[in-house]
């Protein structure tokens, strides 16, 4: 390795409680999306690295599962405090490697700390139950048991929160974890692992490895040691991992792609709707699985919404994430620029009307102006495939049924939204929108205390809430007759 930025620490793998480069002789590259600068090279796990991680996860499980919940909780709480103390440093690294604004990175690490802390408390609430016995002198009990070592895989768009959800919840349940974060954003997960190590986590309870996603996932999931698979990413990759897990009859939690519809009704508060929609669309440059994308707007306010939303999008300040004046940072990589560029060109060529943005602007790096296209035909690629960028699409609708039909048209079902002042309309949307999470006059559908997950092609299983920790546990029935 010979490429290393002075402001970004050299990434290492974390195996059996030790930091090591390891690797198979090949390296991944971390770039600053705002400049294209190479920040570091990342070691790609060798087969020996993966086997060592699996072995340490297996042996650590025998210790960690027997560790009293109150002690597991204490480790998670101490780690939360350490993350808070280190947030300024960690947030800067996240912005350097991922491109989002420093304000967003700072908020993300505050959520990482909250996730560790909340799961510390949840470890104490993972209770079983007593079932009324069928006979005198007997006890019928349900005892919650951790499933075992977990293989977790996370993408680059939220490199702090997504790993934290999987790591913290699994550890709270008494499981151990081997996690493979995205090579493009390694520092955030490394920071979480360092906090847990400093907080006293048992060696081997958490292992962090890097490498070619297909190679690593295949090796880990096929191992007899792994008893649970947890993945956030694309639907295509989720299907592949589900097939691998099915070979060993291993349960999965899959949080996959989305293409969130937004129903804007005639009675919506237009000013509040536009302001909320701008923030929802530019958050993380639109690289959010629950990002509002298809704006399905009732005919009575369609043109007014387009005018105000377009003007507001044009006023967004796009720039490097470390610049405090930037409201939206860079996209994470050139792949996203190419994908958004192609979708914009396709939508316009098919008759879409460009209202705002539609270009990269005049900055170096992987930047794209927030873009709004109206009257987009349903045959356009962006109307059927998740843009995963700052691209909003708008079409009109007439009746509630028409709007819901379009909102439910796609096979994705992660999140959906509606803006209305009518309680009756809100109830109808909540009943008829085929998604895992619904926001009425808000895009906030993912909080640690509530279950989060999709239906249809957006996956199965949930993170968050008491349902999230249950996904890492098995209810063991014990019938004791004296």
Describe this structure in words.
With 482 residues, the chain is an alpha/beta fold. It has two domains: 13-256 and 458-481, Aldehyde Dehydrogenase, Chain A, domain 1 (3-Layer(aba) Sandwich), CATH 3.40.605.10; 260-448, Aldehyde Dehydrogenase, Chain A, domain 2, CATH 3.40.309.10. 38% of the residues lie in helices and 21% in strands. It has 14 helices and 22 strands. The strands form six sheets. It has a seven-stranded mixed β-sheet, sandwiched between helices. Helix 5 links the parallel strand 7 (150-153) and strand 8 (177-180). Helix 2 runs antiparallel to helix 5 (161-173) and helix 7 runs parallel beside helix 8. The longest helix has 22 residues, at 102-123. It is globular, with a radius of gyration of 23 Å. The protein starts with 12 loop residues before the first strand and ends with a strand. The mean pLDDT is 97.
């Amino acid at each position: 390795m010979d490429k290393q930025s002075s402001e970004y620490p050299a990434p290492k793998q974390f195996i059996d409680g030790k930091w090591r480069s390891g690797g198979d002789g090949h390296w991944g590259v971390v770039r600053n999306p705002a400049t294209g600068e190479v920040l570091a090279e990342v070691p790609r796990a060798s087969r020996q690295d993966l086997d060592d991680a699996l072995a340490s996860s297996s042996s650590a499980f025998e210790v960690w599962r027997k560790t009293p919940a109150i002690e597991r909780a204490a480790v998670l709480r101490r780690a939360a405090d350490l993350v808070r103390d280190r947030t300024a440093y960690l947030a800067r690294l996240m912005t350097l490697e991922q491109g989002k604004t420093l304000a967003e990175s700072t908020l993300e690490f505050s959520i990482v700390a909250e996730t560790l802390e909340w799961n510390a408390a949840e470890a104490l609430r993972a209770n079983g139950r007593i079932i009324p016995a069928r006979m005198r002198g007997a006890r019928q009990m349900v005892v919650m048991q951790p499933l075992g070592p977990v293989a977790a895989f996370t993408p680059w768009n939220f490199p702090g929160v997504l790993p934290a959800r999987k790591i913290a919840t699994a550890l709270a349940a008494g499981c151990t974890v081997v996690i493979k974060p995205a090579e493009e954003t390694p520092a955030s997960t490394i920071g979480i692992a360092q906090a847990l190590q400093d907080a006293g986590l048992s060696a081997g309870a958490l292992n962090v490895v890097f490498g070619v996603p297909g190679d690593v996932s295949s090796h880990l999931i096929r191992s007899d040691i792994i008893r649970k698979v947890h993945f956030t990413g694309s639907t295509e990759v989720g299907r592949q991992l589900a097939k691998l897990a099915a070979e060993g009859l291993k349960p999965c939690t899959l949080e996959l792609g989305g293409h969130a519809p937004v129903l804007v009704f005639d009675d919506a508060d237009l000013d509040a709707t536009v302001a909320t929609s701008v923030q929802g669309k530019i958050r993380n440059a639109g690289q959010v699985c629950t990002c509002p994308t298809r704006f399905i707007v009732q005919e009575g306010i369609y043109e007014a919404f387009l005018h105000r939303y377009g003007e507001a999008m044009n006023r967004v300040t796009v720039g490097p994430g470390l610049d405090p004046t930037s409201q939206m940072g860079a996209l994470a990589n050139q792949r996203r620029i190419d994908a958004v560029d192609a979708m914009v060109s396709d939508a316009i060529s098919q008759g879409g009307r460009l209202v705002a943005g539609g270009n990269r602007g005049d900055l170096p790096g992987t930047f794209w102006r927030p873009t709004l296209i109206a009257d987009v035909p349903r045959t356009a690629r962006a109307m059927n495939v998740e843009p995963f960028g700052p691209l909003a699409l708008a079409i009109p609708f007439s009746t509630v049924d028409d709007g819901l039909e379009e909102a439910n048209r796609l096979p994705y079902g992660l999140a959906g939204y509606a803006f209305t002042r009518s309680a009756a309309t809100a109830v109808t949307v909540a009943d008829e929108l085929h998604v895992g999470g619904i926001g009425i006059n808000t895009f906030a559908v993912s909080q640690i205390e509530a279950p989060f997950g999709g239906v249809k092609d957006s996956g199965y299983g949930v993170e968050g809430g008491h349902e999230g920790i249950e996904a890492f546990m098995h209810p063991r029935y014990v019938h004791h007759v004296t």
